[in-house]
């Protein structure tokens, strides 16, 4: 039977990702005596250009420029809200030279996909920072405020598709929370999931029929378009207004229950010993203290919330339970 070209391509991409990860791990272990400061692999469980990839690439630069790690490579393993990358990590048990970027979106993927693996199965290293979502519309949208948007949405929920990232992820949960706060049944939410902020932005700016006229994503995904005036922000889901973005927070806008925040963190494979965990924590702690990383936090309007080791592990367990509850409550899991 002839296998369609698209299927062959997809299988090829998956196989290459798996082989690249495996090759990187083998090189690390054989070439450096399993020394994370000699050679370290960072897995970004998403395609290039997204939020997790940004964290991985900026971490790579900070570690290199400060001489904390001699050789740092980033490997992208995209798909299924990060759970494909999670599956790859589960196969690297005992490897002390690999870390994976993770965050709230992956918790949603775990809950929705009923994954047999969750983050408590891995070794917690550190939570790094929080990243905040923005509700935005194209510059030519008739909606000037979040209240105007909600009024039109409430009048005909199914006529207003809302675009965002992975199904069950932060953007989806925020859309469902906003719907419920606006008196709209979350079951009526027309959510259009995209692979990342770049794809979402392209569709927001498109005039093609059926594309969403409202988007929810991280500030950094929209930043350039907001600066250029091609998108207009209506609300930010953050504890306080973001510098340089003169739009109300969800609390200021009257939607205090819209409160999902996308944190970013690092985990290592299961089965590494305490000394190896402590070394990765030390590497990460040195990284967040570099000038490069501090500039990254400022530039991306992140809120630095460093939490390491066992305390981070406790946070992961509690956060997974919270996300599970939110998704179930909203009918998304």
UniProtKB/TrEMBL annotation:
InterPro entries: BUG, Bug_dom1. The keyword Zinc does not apply. Pfam families: TctC (PF03401). Residues 1-22 form the signal peptide. The keyword NAD does not apply. Keywords: Signal. Belongs to the UPF0065 (bug) family. This is Periplasmic solute-binding protein.
